[in-house]
Task: structure prediction
Amino acid sequence: MKDISYIINHLGEDREKYFNAITPPVFQTSNFAFRNVAELKKAIASEKESYIYSRGNNPTTDILCNKIAALEDTEEALAFSSGMAAISSAVISFVGSGDHIVSVRNNYSWANILMTRFLPRFGVETTFVDGREAENFRKAIRKNTKLFYLESPNSLTFELQDIEAVAKIARTNGITTLIDNSYSSPLTQSPASMGIDIILHSASKYIGGHSDIVAGIVCASSVNITRLFNNEYLGLGGIISPFNAWLMLRGLRTLPARIDRISVTTTRVVEYLEKHPMVEEVLYPLSPRHPQHELAVRQMLKPTGLLSVNLAIHDTGKTEIFVNSLKQFLIGVSWGGHESLVFPAMSFDDERTKEGYSSNLIRFYIGLDEPESLINDLDQAFKKIM
Result:
């Protein structure tokens, strides 16, 4: 069993190299110097194992990547400048002109745009399926299918996939699997143990945890990370800055404590919402009322802080009044930071509105606020529309 405390606090930190400082320094450098031409030639010949230019490797970033890979039970990881840089680089790495992707429907909006707007320009097609049934992935396979793209659960309507079952179908057919694991964090869901090849994170969320960085992570085997490093990582240049890697290391230190706090608070808020007469439905995988609750319990270790509700009214005006009346919840996108957030699905433009996103659908993120404060805030906002 992995020692999470050791990974977060000590793994990869060779303190003797930097004066035994508890916190590693930021190697805020673009360039690295060599003592002679022979050393330079050797480094260029094996850039993945060398420090040449921070577009590739950097000591601060390496410490971070070693920790995230260990938390996700993969051999290696790469850090990117955003979650979308991680997604697009990983997807592009495994498809070429004439290939086919099977993706879960209602995936992250910009991942969806990658698959519907950008990849078709280069001859890559995507079929979107209802991932709640693993068999739908099998039915969508073509001779040219190279990739299964999962997001379990997705980040608005929280539909789950049976990760192990989908991974088994993929392996049987020689198909690579990718999953966006941002909802759960590396501490609450382990896709690698269920057979997934590539694990993606928007590290701006729980891993960063302070709403002050934008970053992404790809975790995979050494073979797949080497392939990605030598091609899309270096070629497309979506790399993280050393300072943002250092900030993410700082955020990682408190990840277990933050997840524990968020888990307890979210459970209380969900219980309140499920009893409220102005709530038609709460969408939260680890609620006993969720239709995929049994699967969620099997795959996810504990609750996290993202959920949606369908209000018991179908009135965009009142939905807007409710959202605008919230004080403790800030109106905004993303999640995973210290602050609690609310995001109404009605905010999507026409291009990014998907089937099933009704005008009364509202997403909440539960941060580090006291549960009583959040419940009181919800209560006063509900009274404005009753």
In short: The longest helix spans residues 255-275. The mean pLDDT is 95. The chain is about 35% helix and 15% strand. Residues 126 and 381 are 41 Å apart (CA to CA).
